[in-house]
Amino acid sequence: MFENNKTIGSYHSDFEKEKGLIEVENVKCSYPPFDQIVLDDLSLVINSGEFVTILGHSGSGKTTLLRSLAGFEIIQEGYIRINGMLASTSWTHLPPEKRKIGFIFQDYALFPHLTVRQNISFGIVGDKNDKKKRENYILDLIGLQKQDNRYPHQLSGGQQQRVALGRSLAPNPVAILMDEPFSNLDKQLRSSLSREVRDIIKSAGITAILVTHDREEAMILSDRVGVLVDGKLIQIDAPEKLYRFPVSLEVSRMISETRLLNGKVQNEYIDTEIGKISIEKIHSSGSIFNNGSSITASIRPEDLTIKKSDSGEHGIIIRKEFYGNNLIYCVELKSGTFLHVDNFNDPDSFKEGEKVRLDFSMMNPISVFPNF
Amino acid sequence: MNRNIDIGQTFLSIFSFFIILIVSIPLIYLVIRVVGSDGKLLDLIFRRRIYQIIIRTLTLVFSVTILSLIIALILSWIIERTDIPWKKFFTILSVLPIVFPSYVAGMIFVDFLGPKGRIQGWLEPFGVNQLPEIYGFWGATILLSLLSYPYLFLIIRSSLNRIDANLEEASKVLGKNGLKTFFLVTLPLLRPAISSGCILVSLYTLSDFGAVSLLRYETFTWAIMTQYESSFNRIVAASFSLVLIFFALLILILDGVIVKPKNYYVSGISGTSRKVKLIKLNLLSKIFSVFIIFLVIFFSVFFPFYGLTYWFIRGAIAGEIINFNWILVWNSMSVSFLAAISCVFCSLLISLLIVKYNSKIGILTEKISYLGFGLPGIAIALGVIFVGLKLISPLYQTIALLILGYIILFLPVTISAIKSSMLQINPHIEEASRSLGFKMWYTTLKITIPIIISGVLAGGILVFMLTMKELPATMILAPLGFETLSTSIWSYSSEAFFAKSAFPSMLLILISGPFTAYLAFRGYTISDKPVKENLDV
User: Fold this and answer.
1) Which of A46, A347, B231, B388 has the smallest C-beta neighbourhood within 10 Å, fewest atoms?
2) Contact criterion met (CB < 8 Å) for B175 and A123
3) In terms of domains, do A227 and A304 share one?
């Protein structure tokens, strides 16, 4: 709880040090009937112009985080500050209409009784001329000048999405929040449109926060990705960094197709069923392993190579999946563990049921986590 | 093509054609009689008095529609959008006025608020010797609004519930406060619901006979009845009816113009359907909101029940229950039962023709039958009586003619219920059953009938209750000396024998009330007219 002497002003002086456009500190949010905790002591700073994605499974609290930023949900502890202005605390709550935040809903929530132009115009304030100018600018930005008199139901899913983006950009918001904005689109449209949306947002120079459960979307679009599990932000980093150096097994599994392999620390090596990994070639998030302690390694398809085995095979190929740019073999080890191997470049083709040996390719450090 | 099917379709088509005749001949005959009477007809229609009646009727229709819209909007918004307590309770009470026939409510209204009425009596010690006049325009407006706002309330409430919660939030996040959001987003989205509800209320007001007569406000229905009862002048009644029909048709056409072209569609596909965040009221506004609801309910529900109970007890002490003529109940129930059975029977055949054969004549029959609920009962009854007098004179002054009138009035109710339940039968279901080796009759017994039975029951019960309550057509079409609950309540209450009419009123409400309320909540059809669900918000 807050002490009496901490006023809004004193927070403002704290803010001077951090200079985040959106600051979330120690926020706790729970829902009334059973006080089920949705956001648990969550802190996050988002800088001006950044594109940040919050990645989480359904029920992880990602939508609630976005809705508390927009002012739709009330928080029980901590504070949210937007552009230096105190927006949510346990004792004050700035209503959504005063936050100057853009919000894109999962179902777009376009006003069905208004045309494209009227939808875009809805949030703009100013005299007729300014309004018209802004409307035209936005219509141009989203490429729907010709459809400005259509109603939302006359548009395709992708066009509706762009109107939603235009409508939220129109009042020149401080930042724009997107709640799974691409989940209603089919796969091909999703990837092309998501890039287009990112380009529009970047060219408008606006700060954006997107929540999604789609790891590819998160990795491709964002400057930084935050992984949210059970209301806790476990790690937030640039996509490459997140991929190479996950701080926990959960993060590793959230951001990549990975399989788990048990091992034991022995002197300078980690001993696993399919061979040894040098301690220098692993990444472990700061934990020091004692000799003999058991660990779990996160093994991705590209971490392994596959070989025909004349003797001493590691396992049997039980499935072969061709994706065009990848060829994944699913191998069942003797212990019953399954590993995935990417072997697109190898001209040797393997059959299902074939006995094979596996090796570490050592392209990337392998993430290793202690067993509890 | 199978020969059997052809025979079936031919039979059904002939039957449908017959129904079209039954529904349309009284109207056509009304026109022929009026036009063909003599040259003085135009004088008759266009003399000055009729303008007064037109203006009076239209002002009443307009003001009742506006007032009930305001009541319904306020109540449904408070109940659906704020965090007041006891919502279920308030919702049920808000719909309850639907169970009162207007002639029963009118009687109680006069009893309470009339000159030397009950309320004036309560206020006498405080020196109130006179209350504002209730006879005439204001009394009729207030009474009819209190009786008809539930129709609008039900439609608006369900529409409010279906508005995507995100739309109102989207408006807020774009900088519009609660009030602006209501006028810029919520109200426009409610427009289809509001216009079809207003159509319903205006038709209800246009065809109401009981309330306007008891409150002595001369509209078409009352004028028609007085002209009809002074029997030498039936042609005037007929021409008044034509003008009334003209206005009803005008409203129905307006319905098509206003409501249909602008159907709204759901934006986006699904999204997580989130409940709308309720507005948190502070204690004072909470108390104020609850007070408003109480105020409406006090007049629309508490008054009628209190008054009825009071007179019921007074009557019981005076021996009205012992002396009650139970034949009235038998009469009412038997004609209502016959009306319900006939409507269900006709509707089954017509729906079959529409759904199974997708026949044009079937669809035409359905469309024409809808005149029945749009047009005032009194006008239709007048047409039927002319036909009975001239074309089918053996039926004149028989129960059969009365039932015929009921069929014309209430057929659309059963058609819409039964047709929609038949449409639920996916043809593949029947085929699946037959592919699993079951014979046609077994399939019908096990699959088809169970699916449509709920529609048949709902439609039948609704017609039964509507017939029980129906007044003007019953007064005109019932054979001499044939009295029903509704006609006897009317004759007692129009002469202010409150104690005598309380018991039959109580019976009527007890028999029809629970089902009316139940069906209203299920959203199947509401009281007099089927609900039109052409809102896709």
Assistant:
1) A347
2) yes
3) no
